[in-house]
Design a protein that fits this description.
The chain is mainly alpha-helical. It contains 4 helices and 2 strands. Strands 1-2 form a two-stranded antiparallel sheet. The radius of gyration is 16 Å and the shape is globular.
Length: 105
């Protein structure tokens, strides 16, 4: 039985996503360029497990360096503050980000 390939959202959803992406700017423009990628790699080697999963006694590999207190861009004083960073797996990071976006940060 042949199945159709899944698309990511409807045309209306993709349109609003494109508008949102244009509004918020590229990842490099927000501060996640070369310097951040180097920092992220070192941070994740030193902190390889997801902090949220660890609270539930689950060992999950971290994939993201999360800003505990959300930041707007690279000019935010908390952007490079190491005490504002935590390792999160993809699922925990996505869940936290979705909640923050619902609350309007």
């Amino acid at each position: 039985m042949a199945t159709k390939a899944r698309t990511h959202g409807t045309a209306a959803t993709r349109g609003s996503r494109q508008t949102y992406d244009r509004w918020r700017g590229s990842s490099a423009a927000r501060g996640y360029g070369h310097q951040w990628r180097k920092y992220r790699a070192v941070f994740l080697v030193a902190n390889p497990l997801c902090a949220k999963c660890a609270l539930r006694a689950t060992l999950t590999e971290a994939a993201h360096v999360d800003h505990i207190i959300p930041v707007i861009d690279k000019d935010d004083p908390l952007f490079w503050d190491k005490s504002n960073h935590q390792p999160l797996c993809h699922a925990c990071h996505s869940e936290k980000t979705a909640k923050e976006n619902q609350l309007g940060r």
